[in-house]
Design brief:
about 100 residues, mainly beta, 4 strands, about 40% strand
Length: about 100
């Protein structure tokens, strides 16, 4: 189980950050809004508990930092044309795609 994301900042006593929605992406090369390969790096602190039988249970996972390293379009394979968009922009583009031709 994951605990809430913590803000590391400069101090060792960090506050809890409210969850935020994941960013939305759009490929400007092919128009894709739904399929992306996203590579992220995460630094976590976790309590490793080994049973007497030697089985590992990872508990109290705390995400210290997380960054997106690369976003690549699953449809056309490019990463250079992928941009981050707002949820409102994604809805607007989707509505235009569903509209009359």
């Amino acid at each position: 189980m994951c605990s809430p994301v913590k803000d590391v900042g400069t101090s060792r006593t960090a506050g809890t950050i409210a969850p935020v929605s994941a960013p939305r992406y759009r490929c400007t090369a092919c128009g894709n809004l739904t399929r992306f390969d996203v590579t992220t790096s995460r630094q976590v602190r976790a309590f490793h508990h080994y049973t007497v039988g030697g089985e590992l249970q990872v508990e109290d996972v705390e995400v210290l930092s997380e960054s997106v390293d690369e976003v690549e379009c699953r449809w056309c394979g490019t990463g250079r044309s992928v941009i981050e968009i707002s949820a409102d922009e994604a809805e607007l583009v989707a509505a235009e795609d569903d509209g009359p031709a």
